[in-house]
Specification:
- The chain is of the alpha/beta class.
- 36% of the residues lie in helices and 16% in strands.
- The protein has one domain: 3-Layer(aba) Sandwich (Rossmann fold), CATH 3.40.50.
- The chain contains ten helices and ten strands.
- Strands 1-2-3-5-4-6-7-8-9-10 form a ten-stranded mixed beta sheet, sandwiched between helices.
- Helix 1 packs parallel to helix 9, helix 3 crosses helix 4 and helix 4 packs across helix 7.
- The chain is globular and about 55 Å long.
Length: 335
């Protein structure tokens, strides 16, 4: 099935026996700025995967904007709905969060990637995910042996509860709405911080050890990874809330000497990155990262993007200088 509207095209993929629906954003031609030919692009494609139950457009259509921006820069962009989500076939699961945290969508996303590479003549794929989608993207990057890179927005490396206990939610609301509650909350943070100091570098009990192992497996190869972080509740700038384990520092260290990880703190974003400042900063950071790691030398807008990085504090963690692994390609086939 092919249905084109302007520079977008609806596509159908085979998700291991389930029909997946998605949207293909045509890349701009390097010279004219018009849509490029659909076949034999020989360039990196960007594949967006769902964040939990969100449709492929994401909150506030933010994924649509980012995909269009990436395509304008010359990179083919694809947004797909995973099984049971959005427009794709499959049953919606009641334990969706557990499935995501265990990497249940990894092989479906990898199979979709394989089809896209073959259909559009891509040189590889970068998986893009936000929150739970970042977890799925990371698992998919491991399952897809030819993956070229990862873009992860606010990934989490612990096992969150599907629903917050009612009593705890009430306490949280009280802490935010009253002076006494805020004092109690600050005291609680200090107690947790003392406990974390006693624990040292040991992981918290709810750490997702399976996901951390997959992270180490892929990040230690030198695969380019862009990790964007929004401010957390009561966070101290780019650092986590007092008493919370610093997973970002942990995973950067876990990646080893060959790592090629760029961490950007988007100061004025919310967790969804769908507010105006968040959307713009993500667009700018991704543009600069793609131009630096996967340059399209003769594309006229490539150098402009590098100069427009976001305003938030940023940290880049690079290992020894090396070329992007050219032998890693993720395979997808898209609508």
């Amino acid at each position: 099935m092919r249905e084109a509207i302007g520079d977008r095209e609806l596509i159908i993929l085979d998700g291991l026996g389930v029909r997946l629906q998605g949207t293909y954003h045509h890349p701009a031609d390097r010279q004219s700025g018009a849509p490029a030919e659909p076949a034999n692009l020989n360039r990196i494609g960007i594949l967006f995967v769902n964040s939990l139950s969100m449709p492929r457009a994401a909150s506030g259509d933010s994924a649509v904007r980012w995909a269009e921006s990436i395509a304008d820069q010359g990179y083919p962009s694809f947004r797909i709905d995973l099984p049971g989500l959005g427009d794709s076939e499959g049953e919606a699961s009641t334990d969706l969060l557990d499935i995501v945290n265990a990497g249940g969508f990894a092989y479906v996303a990898a199979a979709a990637a394989n089809q896209l590479v073959k259909r559009f003549g891509l040189s590889g794929v970068v998986f893009f995910g936000h929150c739970a989608g970042a977890v799925s993207a990371l698992y998919a990057g491991v399952a897809c042996s030819d993956c070229k890179g990862l873009i992860l927005l606010d990934p989490y490396f612990y096992l969150p509860r599907a629903e917050r206990p009612k009593v705890r939610q009430q306490l949280s609301d009280w802490a935010r709405s009253s002076r006494v509650g805020r004092l109690a909350s600050n005291l609680y943070d200090r107690i947790r911080n003392f406990s974390s100091l006693l624990r040292g570098s040991a992981l918290p009990a709810n750490a997702n050890s399976q996901l951390l192992a997959r992270w180490k497996q892929v990040a230690s190869t030198g695969l380019p990874i862009l990790l964007l972080k929004a401010p957390g509740i009561k966070a101290q700038g780019s650092k986590p809330r007092l008493g919370e384990f610093n997973y970002i520092d942990h995973v950067v260290n876990l990646a080893g000497r060959k790592k090629s990880i760029t961490v950007e703190f988007v100061e004025r974003a919310d967790h969804s990155f769908a507010n105006r400042e968040g959307r713009e900063a993500v667009e700018q950071h991704i543009g600069g990262w793609l131009a630096a790691n996967f340059p399209l030398a003769d594309f006229k807008f490539g150098t402009e993007r590098i100069a427009h990085l976001g305003d938030g504090a940023n940290q880049s963690y690079q290992g020894k200088s090396q070329e992007t692994p050219a032998d890693r390609i993720c395979a997808l086939e898209g609508r």
